[in-house]
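Fold this sequence, please.
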Amino acid sequence: MKITPVIELSRVSKSYRRGGFFRKGERVEVLKEIDLSIRPGECVGLIGPSGSGKSTMGRILLGLESPDDGEVRMMGESISAETHLSKNRRRAVQVVFQNAPDSCNPRMTAREILSEPLRNFEKLRGRRLEEKIDSLLKKVGLLSSDKGKRPDRFSGGELQRICIARALAPGPDLILLDEAVSALDMVVQSQILDLLDELRFDLGTAYLFVTHDLRLVRRFCDRAFLLENGRLEPFDPATFAANKHLPLLDELVKAMPPSRPNRNRG
């Protein structure tokens, strides 16, 4: 049986005008005929240098921008410029950013942080709202008693769990993980990735995992792509083998630290 992808980009292109207020600048093509599909429960890795178009692709997936050319489909339905900011689109694709403290209002408790999407998308109130908040906290390994805490009372890893719970609150089909574990130490990284693995297998949530760390791509992703010069090139996350020679990928692989320290002495 054919599985309908959560989201598809078909020959998507995007360009920007570079220049000042008083002269017409050149047009720079950031994305060039991008094809990408992500299935339910799948984790797709995305790496690329600064300025390669990762952020632009993310904004298109989130509905914050529309492509110049090509088509975006969600669960098989084409997303037009008029519907890209619809409530269903905003519910279906959520995001978790790198810096959890900057992503949370320091004056809000965990309960208030999680209440916002539940009220906006699910229209929950009263007891049903409290039960859903408790359920989300449990899903990410926190306690009901934590909902009265403000961000400064959580560790970095705990606060990122709050951000994940917030992303899960509207029941999304896809979560964009934008360097979501990069600011955490390796032990907490492993814990968060284990949590995300459990959630995608339990809930069928798909992930686009944007990172600069190839070790995390190997650890976490089913498929992976390198975005460079506006083009999307696939590679095997287990072996880092690509269908064509990719010098940047070779450089990133060589720059990876060894899995074990070299104890040899010269």
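The longest strand covers residues 26-38. The chain has one domain: 7-255.
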